[in-house]
Amino acid sequence: MSTGALFLMGVFAVTVVIDMPIAFGLVLSCLAYLAVYDSAPMMVAAQQYVVGLDSFTLLAIPLFILAAQLMNGAGLTQRIVRLCAAIVGDIKGGLAVVAVLACLMFGALSGSGVADVVAIGSLLLPAMARSGYDKGFSCALVGSAGATSTIIPPSIVLIVYGTITDTSVGKLFVAGIIPGILLGLSLIGVAIWQSRKHNWAGGQPFSWPELRAAAVDALPALMVPVLIIGGIRFGIFTATEAASSAIIYALLIGFFWYRTLSLKSLWDNLKSTGESSASILLIIGASGLFAWVLVAEQVPQALSTLLVDWTDSKIAVLLLLTVVLLLLGTFMEAIPVIIIVAPVVMPVLAHYNIDPVHFGILLSINMAIGANTPPVGVDLMAACKIGGINMMQTLRPLSWMMLAMTAVMLLLTFVPELVLFLPRHVQ
């Protein structure tokens, strides 16, 4: 690896250690590299920053964020929780199972792990505390379940990955369905096991009339994934156009069906979307600049050569990349990791004939695990803030959930058909 690449990563490592915001650290390390090595005019940094944002597909990010805000404001979150509670009934640990199911369903609306955690956690964490659930367990469960939004469509993480690698976002969305369900089932298994072990309570007794009423009430929310995936699958619209359609749909049901949205709440949602989108896009632009420097220093070629000399095994390469991604996900948020790593590993994937859709899903699961791993752990941090506890209180129950998610990731690594079956037969 060249001295320029080592200098770049060294400066960035220092910015991480001193806890500088990731976006600023990425830009500063690139500017320092250009100043020291004089490989291009400083103006190029601004140009590459803008190039990193110049994508029609990336427009889907603020649109999906706004759609999720509107749906939450329209009361879809409460209706999803009610439906999940009606499905689960009063089985032992029922509230924990409801939390996982609700996170999976809301993830199909939001595409954001933090949004999922905040929306579902605000409703269920207080209820779980009142029912005697350990707060560390509850926060770890909601954080882990909320992180499945990085895999379940319309995942913002998958949109970013598809844009950077020129991989079909529609295929990535479809590919995330089975892995998302498997992750949910693994967390439900942990939730039921721990609940029975500690004798934690269930919810209300199962009732067919309540299930029918809850299903009818939640039907508009259940139609959103159908609108998004179905529209993309049948070529009616792209991912960005699907996001726009979801906004229109949310406005219609919020203003005219449930009549829970107002002009004031719409304005509040627009402001919140602007803040969230700006922070994400700021990081995307900075990460694009950083990735451009890595490519200019021929880091992808160097990594490809190193791995080719080391092994011929596709599985060994995937496992090695998994270890690297888990380490990066512990200290960085998902989007900068994706934008930095994806261009570097694409030549490696091509050499080993690894499907970029398969790798994209594995990468997303790695990021979901990282989003619940201290010291960063943004999803876990959000859950702990709502639950009013310290992250250290979640570590013991969290270890079982991370183990379950890692087991699913390894299963998908060794059995890629679980990821690729739907894209091959549905697209």
TrEMBL record:
The keyword Membrane is assigned to this record: yes
Full protein name: TRAP transporter large permease protein
Membrane topology recorded in Swiss-Prot or TrEMBL: Multi-pass membrane protein
Native organism: Achromobacter insolitus
Protein's job: Part of the tripartite ATP-independent periplasmic (TRAP) transport system.
Subunit structure of this chain's protein: The complex comprises the extracytoplasmic solute receptor protein and the two transmembrane proteins.
Transmembrane segments: 6-37, 49-71, 95-125, 137-161, 173-193, 214-236, 242-258, 278-295, 315-345, 398-422
Molecular functions per Gene Ontology: transmembrane transporter activity
A Pfam short name: DctM
This protein's UniProt keywords: Cell inner membrane, Cell membrane, Membrane, Transmembrane, Transmembrane helix, Transport
GN (gene name): dctM_1
